[in-house]
User: Fold this.
Amino acid sequence: MPVRLPADAELPLLRARVSDLADRALVVGDPGRAARVAERLDDMRQLAVNREYHVYAGTWKGVPVTVASHGVGGAGAAVCFEELARGGVTRIIRSGTAGGMQPEIVDGAIVVATGAVRADGVSHQLVPTEFPAIATPELTVALKAGAASSGLDVHSGVVLTGDMFYPSDVITGVDLPLWQRAGVVAVEMEAATLFVIAALHGIETGGVFAIDGNPLAAADVAMGDYDPYREIVVQAVDAALTAALDVLVS
Assistant:
């Protein structure tokens, strides 16, 4: 049975009190991005700061929400997702950046995940390999519609979740061309972990991502010219966050 903590408990690593959490949470990797999202909320207050986990509370369109950062990669992110679920959160949406995996999915586009390939290092320690990592269909449909209202190029499909960011000259790691041929639309680092943990706790979940490059189309395959701070990416990040917040409270 999923663990639920009492209202007066403090989450061990997020360090927020359960009673301060809303039942809806937006999660992002970057603590700085969490702070910028929190500034968009009404009645915002910071609940806790510990390691990579920065947690905020506020309201969006009159509905209480929690915003939390989870850092980079599935292992640390799993701590955030698990503690939010144990704290009574019933809907978690992840918004972040990702690399496009199809030729037409390039910088400035938005991808909504329908599910994720479990190439992370965490989910296989939680459930067998055959267990799928799937987003909640209703949230996926709503995220796609919300992102489309931005006027940006929007795609949806299965994303690839892996632990490696910079490629190695020794071992190639995840076979990106193989997953491209399989129709995977983007690659990122935490969605599969979130989708599995959400399933284990019986909560709703989704993922919406701003595309900051395409590793299979990049001239520099070693990613020496990677720059996620260009204006075209910033616009997509803002649009993805707005869609996530709107669907979170819908």
Observations:
- The longest helix spans residues 231-249.
